[in-house]
Amino acid sequence: MKTEQAEAIALRALGWLVADEELLPVFLGASGATSEDLRAGAGAPAFLGSVLDFVLMDDDWVRRFCDAEGLGYELPMQARQCLPGGQQVHWT
């Protein structure tokens, strides 16, 4: 997956998250972000990665997001790996 595709998926996740009145406050509380941060972060790959990190914390959230957006369930994780901080750590 290319970085541009990953950012597009993350932007869709951000839009989905903002539209969810129950889940958005959870994200804001967990991340410490404000509504202003959401607008500013929409153009920042590292922030978009944090949105995907949040969605990926719960399989139900992944399913709900992917079902709402018509995406394969594997795409959020693939997108996360393409954004800053998403690379797998190899300890050996």
Q: Which descriptors would you attach to this protein?
A:
92 residues, mainly alpha, 68% helix
Write the layout of secondary structure elements.
Elements lengths: L2 H17 L3 H9 L3 H7 L3 H11 L3 H11 L5 H8 L10
Walk me through what this model shows.
Helix 1 packs across helix 4 (45-55), helix 1 crosses helix 6 (75-82) and helix 4 packs antiparallel against helix 6. The relative contact order is 0.21. It is built from six helices and no strands. It has one domain (3-82). It is an all-alpha fold.
- Beta-strand proportion: under 5%
Beginning-to-end CA distance, first to last residue:
25 Å
Q: Mind describing the biggest β-sheet?
A: none
Number of helices: 6
Helical amount: 55-70%
Tell me the radius of gyration: 13 Å
Produce a short descriptive summary.
The protein has 92 residues and is an all-alpha fold.
